[in-house]
Design a protein that fits this description.
One of its GO terms (biological process) is glycolytic process. Its EC number is 5.3.1.9. This is Glucose-6-phosphate isomerase. The chain has helices at about 10-15, 20-25, 30-40, 50, 55-70, 85-95, 105, 120-130, 145-165, 180-190, 210-215, 220-235, 245-260, 275-290, 320-325, 360-380, 395-415, 425-435, 440-454; strands at about 1-5, 75, 110-115, 135-140, 170-175, 190-195, 265-270, 290, 300, 305, 330-335, 385-390. It is of the alpha/beta class. It has a five-stranded mixed sheet with strand order 1-12-11-7-10, with helices on both faces. Strand 11, helix 16 (about 360-380) and strand 12 (about 385-390) form a beta-alpha-beta unit. It is globular and about 65 Å long. The N and C termini lie far apart (about 55 Å). Bound molecules: 5-phosphoarabinonic acid (PA5). 5-phosphoarabinonic acid binds near residues 80, 81, 145, 203 and 286.
């Protein structure tokens, strides 16, 4: 994986870029930030995941074998950090029409993630799967999340109807080691259960059972995922800003925020990476969007992530990115080698002025379009950067996950906020409990009813 920050700078894009003196000034904070990152390493338990999951990975692989041998479908039930990592892994590495492939080509079960409570969306799944032949992975770290618990209840109802009391094998749970309703259910009914390690927040959990069971079921090389993350960890734990891409990303993005760039666009040029942009959107938004600073004062920090897809969004959003306000940083994600090389053949009819395309490849076209867009936004003086993956494989994807996690943690240090809590999300969860009549939330329900009458 290569990262190029040149187009963030005043030297390449002109007056709206980051100046040398901005970097030097913010770099003065690096020793303190580095010290904090080292001191908090144990509390950031997700940083150890590429190293300490061997025992659980053995168990996960055994479970994945059982699933692939005994079922036709594997469905993840979860939301936010409990779902987005699996989605990013799935499309980032596997065949883009994986579920439609014949089983021998897939080499395993079909794969689905349900991360919403749209009744039509949930029901649509039941129209294409046989629940008897489906293993459900229910993931909720808190063990209480209303969306996941309601999906789980629907699934249990369907399984009971189809299998009587023999549904235990169709359910796997992943949750906290002791807290939450899901843990109680796990203890009471003895479902196969994996644990989200302490100190691993939802959006940082892809390299623990939350994402790894999906990876194993999909025959994704978990060791390569870890190897990519470990290599990135080596670079991202250096104190020297110029050798540490996570510190540089955090510094430049925070400098951009100071200049009014309140939007972070992630624009991969690969269909399979759109879910990676989705995963990043949650990571960046939920970690950095904070009302309070570490000192308790109101700061209202954060930068709005936007996911865009190259080249598709060149024909929708790029006009704005090129000629609109200077309020964005665009991160292009480039892939050097796709799984496929697709040639544009000699056409059997006279293609007239389009004939220059004959004999070229679609691969060259997508790469050229990325370069062209990068050129256009750079010429327009808009801050942009490029992340290049050599291929869309487990090692590169593992490195990308870890890089973005480290950059987010470092940005939290620059912004002097807690990147690991999510009080705004919790407030919404509590209000939903109240509106759905959960015991203990009567006062909140009354408050909400009063507010709706105003
Ligand atoms: O990053 C986070 O903490 C959140 O996005 C959670 O992943 C999300 O709210 C789901 O929570 P849980 O896993 O507790 O169901």
């Amino acid at each position: 994986m290569k990262i190029d920050f040149n187009h963030m700078l005043v030297q390449t894009i002109g007056e709206h870029g980051i100046e040398e003196q901005d970097i030097q000034k913010m770099a003065l904070k690096i020793p303190q930030i580095h010290q904090n990152m080292c001191a908090k390493k144990d509390a950031m338990a997700w940083r150890s995941l590429p190293y300490n999951q061997a025992a659980v990975v053995a168990d996960i692989k055994k479970e994945a074998e059982r699933i692939n041998a005994g079922f036709e479908n594997f469905v993840v039930l979860g939301i936010g950090g409990s779902a987005l990592g699996s989605k990013a892994l799935f499309t980032g590495i596997k065949h883009l029409k994986y579920n439609e492939l014949p089983r021998e080509k897939r080499g395993g079960v079909r794969f689905y993630v349900v991360d919403n409570v749209d009744p039509d969306g949930i029901n649509a799944l039941f129209d294409v799967i046989d629940v008897k032949k489906t293993c459900f992975h229910v993931i909720t770290k808190s063990g209480n999340t209303v969306e996941t618990m309601s999906q789980f209840m629907i699934v249990l109802g369907k399984l009971k109807e189809a299998l009587g009391d023999r549904f235990q094998e169709n359910i796997i749970l992943t949750t906290d080691k002791e807290k939450g309703i899901l843990k109680k259910i796990s203890n009471q009914y003895g479902f196969k259960t994996f644990t989200v390690p302490d100190g691993v927040g939802g959006r940082f959990s892809v390299l623990c059972p939350v994402g790894l069971l999906s990876a194993a079921v999909l025959n994704i090389d978990i060791e390569a995922l870890f190897a990519g993350a470990q290599e990135m960890d080596e670079a991202c734990t250096k104190e020297n800003l110029w050798e540490n891409p996570a510190y540089m990303y955090a510094l430049l993005y925070c400098a951009a925020m100071k200049k009014g760039a309140n939007i972070s666009v992630m624009m991969p040029y690969a269909d399979g990476l759109l879910n990676m942009a989705e995963w990043y959107a949650q990571l960046w938004a939920e970690s950095l969007g904070k009302r309070y600073g570490n000192d308790g004062s109101i700061v209202n920090k954060g930068q709005t992530p936007v996911r865009a897809l190259g080249v598709t969004d060149q024909h929708s959003q790029i006009q704005l990115y090129t000629e609109g306000p200077f309020d964005k940083v665009i991160a292009f994600i480039d892939v050097e080698k796709f799984h496929t090389e697709l040639k544009i053949p000699q056409a059997p009819i006279d293609m007239q002025d389009a004939s220059y395309l004959q004999g070229q490849t679609i691969n060259k076209l997508i790469a050229s379009e990325m370069r062209a867009t990068e050129y256009a936004v750079t010429q327009a003086g808009k801050m942009n950067m490029r992340i290049t993956l050599s291929e869309m494989n487990a090692k590169e994807i593992g490195a990308l996950f870890f890089f973005l996690e480290m950059a987010t943690a470092a940005a939290g240090e620059f912004l002097e906020i807690d990147a690991f809590d999510q009080p705004g999300v919790e407030a919404g969860k509590i209000a939903t409990f109240a509106l759905m009549g959960r015991d203990g939330y009567e006062e909140k329900a009354a408050e909400l009813n009063q507010a709706s009458q105003k």
